Amino acid sequence: MTVESSQLIKLEIPSSMDFVHLLDAVITEILQQTGVDRDATDQVNLAVIEAGTNAIKHGNREDPRKRTYFDFMMYPEELVVIVRDEGEGFDAKIIEDPLNPENLLNSSGRGLFLMEACMDSINFSQNGTVVTMTKKITS
């Protein structure tokens, strides 16, 4: 199946790491329907799981009263994923470089780096509570 016009799939999950595994199933199914190759599927999976993990752990602080929202917008030549949390936000510009030797052993800090490496573009808005990621797709 090829995407002839835009399609939108929305997902809302509780702020619990128990639900992160759902993202893999949803993303894989969406991309299989579009005929995207396995490498692109793996890259999008990793980026969305990282964004979801950050939203749940760091944004919502795993508060069960808060939710994490995902919009998957499929266009003929790209996939746009928007991840939103209900946290206070952060400034992506002050995140330490995970490749700096001083930071190599840190227990966190690689998620944003991986997201940027896997997607074609990434943008933070609304004080860091919304991340928009784009991946060019070809089937």
User: If you consult CATH, what is the topology?
Assistant: Heat Shock Protein 90
Q: Which architecture name does CATH use?
A: 2-Layer Sandwich
Strand order of the largest sheet: 1-2-3-5-4
Low-pLDDT parts are: none
Number of individual domains:
1
Let me know the CATH homologous superfamily.
Histidine kinase-like ATPase, C-terminal domain
How far apart, in Å, are the first and last alpha carbons?
9 Å
Largest sheet: 5 strands, antiparallel
Radius of gyration from the alpha-carbon trace, in angstroms = 15 Å
Give the tally of β-strands.
5
Sum up the overall morphology in one term: globular
H and E order: EHHEEHEE
Query: How would you classify the helix and strand content by structural class?
Result: alpha+beta
Q: What proportion of the residues is helical, as a percent range?
A: 25-40%
What is the number of helices? 3
Mean pLDDT metric: 85
Structure description:
With 139 residues, the chain is α+β, with helices and mostly antiparallel strands. It has one domain (7-136): Heat Shock Protein 90. 32% of the residues lie in helices and 25% in strands. It contains three helices and five strands. The chain has helices at residues 21-34, 38-59, 111-118, and strands at residues 7-14, 67-74, 78-84, 121-125, 130-136. A five-stranded antiparallel sheet has the order 1-2-3-5-4, with helices on one face. Helix 1 packs antiparallel against helix 2 and helix 2 (38-59) packs antiparallel against helix 3. The radius of gyration is 15 Å and the shape is globular. The mean pLDDT is 85.
